[in-house]
Design a protein that fits this description.
Length: 158
């Protein structure tokens, strides 16, 4: 075998090896990108769903309390929906998260303030719930932005 044949063989082998290496790297990068995109889109859905659930819970609780719904035909359905939302919201939260824990505490406290005589406490608790939820959602949105920009998943709720 001549040196030029050896050089061609080495060149062909290196080209093949680089091609296989590129194929493997592209496959891994595509899988990682798809995974990050899936997690990020689910986190965005989680943010929106939590926002909707908290706002509906707050609105229904305030309306139920302020409208003196006791004994009215709409009361059972409204109370059922409020209770459902309390549980759904809790299931969406991270039990080890700072803001999440505060939201859970408020979800347990708020029903105690639905008596019309405690409307000031109810309003304060609902405001606290909204503010704490805003902080949680802002943190989560920042995580989404970092995931999208840098492709680095961070631990979180959604």
């Amino acid at each position: 075998m001549e040196p030029k044949d050896i050089a061609y063989a080495v060149g062909i082998f290196l080209t093949f090896a680089i091609g296989v290496w590129n194929l493997v790297q592209n496959y891994r990068n595509t899988r990682r990108t798809n995974f990050i995109n899936t997690v990020t889109s689910q986190r965005v859905k989680w943010i929106e769903q939590l926002r909707q659930d908290i706002s509906t819970f707050s609105g229904l609780t305030y309306t139920w309390s302020a409208s003196n719904m006791e004994g009215k035909p709409q009361e059972p359905e409204m109370v059922r929906e409020i209770d459902r939302l309390r549980h759904v919201i809790r299931l969406r939260l991270n039990p080890r998260g700072k803001h999440d824990s505060r939201i859970e505490t408020l979800l347990e406290e708020i029903p105690k303030y639905t008596d019309p005589g405690q409307s000031a406490k109810l309003a304060a608790a609902l405001t606290d719930l909204t503010t704490t939820t805003q902080l949680l959602l802002t943190e989560e949105w920042e995580k989404v932005k970092k995931e999208s920009e840098y492709g680095n998943l961070q631990s979180g709720n959604g």
